[in-house]
Amino acid sequence: MLNHCGTSRIAGCQFTLFPMSDAFVEIILSTLEEVDTSKVWKQTDDVTTCIRGKQVHIFDVTKAIFLHAAKTGEHVAMSGTFSIGCPGDTAGDVYMDESNQLMNEPSSSNIQQQAGCKFSLYPLGREDYMDKIYQQIDWSKTTEVTVSHAHYATRLDGDVHDIFRVLQHSFEQVQAVVSHVTMSFTISANSPSQQTVKEN
After folding, report:
1. How confident is the model at residue 194, as a pLDDT?
2. E strands of 45-159, at which residues?
């Protein structure tokens, strides 16, 4: 049985944006106005926003939303899950015909923002899944981000563009050889506590 999703490799991300501010409504609405989502399928409810389409546009939109929210200077976090290869996921196939031109890179490329991120990569249905994970962790250590171990996750610290470059590369490399892949992440910027760790 093939685990390819529908007629194409449609990817998706389900995420929640958390502006830690009394002006959270304004931050969310202004962010959505600045980000071009025309090349992804999008649905928002009271819990999450889900976007689906080509991998390049899923990462472009997700990164842009976080950057435009974080540039306010308020403490902002985003938590979500990227996925590809989910059996039966075909409703958004129309967006797979979009070109690879990134709609948000021109407006977000000049936003410089430091952040911390924890992510976990899950190559599903493979006995050698840990090998695939370690390959991407080893590669991430050659990039501009600072990589460290965390319980049940890998931590990345650095510029948001570099962090998302690692996330996207890791996801793309693994999905090329594993049909069904998910990757959870939480990214935070402008936190007043920064990397302060409390243990009980």
Report:
1. 65
2. 49-53, 76-84, 114-123, 146-150, 153-159
